[in-house]
Amino acid sequence: MAHIDIQEEILTLGESYLSGRTEWDERPAILVLRRRDGGGLEWLEWPVPATSWDVADAPTVLITYAELAAELDLPPLRVEAVAFRYEGFVISPESSPEAAETFRRRRAGGSVPRNEEIPGRAEQRVLNIRDVHGVQYLVTATRQPDGGAVLDKRAVYPVGTSVTGGVPHGLELLMNAHIRP
Q: What is the average pLDDT across 74-96?
């Protein structure tokens, strides 16, 4: 199967996974995408004790788990990708005057409130994915007033594209630790 076909399949599976979420305020989750015996792909949630998410912010827990996995020297697992699902708040400069001011202050290096405190914010489910080739993916769904969600972003970031932050870093560490192709 061509790599472009795999990329589309991973994005479609990511969208399907987020669309299947019916509750909000869920704990984050570490996922692996593996090939079933019949050839299809499936998401499996990696077991992480629920209380782990209460100790630190979600990206820090992911990075810590990945570092511990590397130290355990476990046998490699056969997977196509690793992923991290979490919820967060996003803003755009157009969403409110307060959001516009927050963007201005961020660009200037000033202190800013958390996104969840800014009027006009939107709550999102986010699925960051990293495949065995190092390609990264992003799928998001924004919460609607009725509690549902609308898929609004799907992106592929080819190898060599700079994608920074705790979540992409944690997924890279996890893939390199003991989850290999």
A: 87
pLDDT tens track for 97-124: 888 888 888 889 888 888 888 888 889 9
Cα angle, residue 51 at apex, residues 46 and 52 outer, rounded to 5°:
60
Q: Nearest-5° angle of CA 129, CA 115, CA 95?
A: 100
Burial of 66 from C-beta contacts in 10 A (0-12 / 13-18 / 19+): buried
By C-alpha distance, which of 147, 172, 173 is closest to 162? 172
CA dihedral (171, 39, 36, 12) positive or negative? positive
Whole-angstrom distance, CA of residue 130 vs CA of residue 24: 24
pTM of the model: 0.88
**Number of Cβ atoms within 10 Å of the Cβ of 178:** 16
Do 83 and 127 form a contact (C-beta atoms < 8 A)? yes
